[in-house]
Design a protein that fits this description.
Layout (H helix, E strand, L loop, with lengths): L1 E6 L2 H12 L15 E4 L4 E6 L4 H6 L5 E5 H7 L4 E5 L5 E8 L10 E5 L2 H11 L3 E5 L6 H4 L5 E6 L3 H5 L2 E10 L1 E5 L1 H6 L1 H15 L3
Parallel strand pairs: 1-3, 1-4, 7-8, 7-9
Antiparallel strand pairs: 2-3, 4-11, 5-11, 6-9, 6-10
Length: 208
């Protein structure tokens, strides 16, 4: 059986729907909370639900053969896995945001609040900009409003939360979407099964 790690929440529901459409679904996600592992013996898959940020950990360490995870998590954690396919949904952007009209004069240390500390550090290092990165786990938009930071680095989907707080996207760092990943050892020994599922999913989402 292929062990497949799915993220809990909206993305996991969308992925489960995709797997259902190609005959790889297992169980009913409405049972989530009572049951975390679902099997489809006919399709040869076992699905389990984990916190989105944990998907890559399960795959990297071999508890899951493959998984679906956001590109933001892959860029932040840089897990030792194979990235096989851009599924083309769960789209958003990793952005620098701040007060409308903010201009960096390049002087002093720029204070940046984010939960994506590694992404932010690499981005500003590429610019040669000295920054003080402040790790936050939630309500990132609050940081510049209360003077904790000058800017934030965060995921932006519609931008409505930014606008409601008089903030704006200043720079897009990278586009984000859901990715199919594989454990490197599993890919070596189960290449046929993983490759078949990858091709089926690629055809279903219109990817190459």
């Amino acid at each position: 059986m292929l062990n497949i790690a799915l993220p809990k929440g909206r993305l996991g529901e969308k992925v489960h729907g995709l797997l259902s459409s190609v005959g790889y679904a297992a169980g009913d996600l409405s049972d989530m909370g009572r049951k975390l592992v679902f099997e489809n013996e006919e399709a040869g898959v076992r699905l389990f639900l984990v916190k989105p940020s944990d998907v890559a950990i399960y795959v990297e360490h071999g508890a899951a053969n493959i998984g679906i995870v956001g590109k933001d998590i892959l860029e932040e954690d840089r897990p030792d896995v194979y990235e096989l396919l851009d599924l083309g949904f769960g789209k958003c952007r990793m952005c620098v945001a701040g007060p409308k009209g903010f201009a960096d004069d390049g002087c002093g240390t720029l204070r940046v609040a984010t939960k994506f500390t590694n992404v932010a550090a690499r981005y500003y290092a590429s610019l040669g900009r000295e920054v003080d990165i402040i790790k936050l786990n939630g309500s990132i938009e609050l940081a510049p409003l209360l003077g904790l930071s000058d800017l934030i680095v965060d995921i932006v989907e519609t931008g409505s939360t930014l606008r409601e707080n008089n903030l704006a996207v200043l720079t897009e760092i990278m586009p984000i979407s859901a990715r199919l990943i594989a454990n490197k050892v599993s890919f070596q020994f189960q290449r046929e099964e993983i490759g078949r599922l990858r091709e089926i999913l690629a055809e279903a989402v219109g990817a190459k």
